[in-house]
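Marked as duplicate of an earlier ticket. Keeping the data here for the record.
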Amino acid sequence: MWCSGIIYNFEDASMNYPTVFPPTAYIDFHTHRARYGDREDVLEIISSHLGDGKEGSLYTLGCHPWLTMEQLDATALSDLQDTLLNDPRCLALGECGLDKLKGPAMSIQIAILEQQLELADRHRKSVVIHCVRAYDPLLQVKKQFPNIPNWVIHGYARHDILAKSLVDQGFYLSLRWRCLLTRGF
């Protein structure tokens, strides 16, 4: 089976994953919209932004740094928590993270990320991280949240030295398909 994303222990009943997964040949973990709904051999896990529709059968939910300009209010945090805890189709928190090229100031992005990670840490939920040229601050933030079981870098496309360092520090990598073709991952 080819997989571009997260590895879950589906036998862990405490994680509240859906119990039936179709026999797929491919898992598309790097998508923001359903593209293969008519294909039985592709399982899509849609990355949804809080407030958007929950497209597809399985998804992750978070506040992307390109789309979130200020800290989350109590209603947004409550909605995010409610979905994470009560919708078995929601497999993880994310895509959330840090981006030095786009989005609000880094200090605001870090505060927004920490708000979301507090939920994931408290409820032991996996996270899907968007990170562009902000790996040092991300590593500092990660140290504050030891109860998050899985950290996945969404759409990793940097070099293999950084990839090894991230994996050594407990991250999973969701690779862009071009990395698979051009960099030998």
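See parent ticket for discussion. The longest strand covers residues 90-99.
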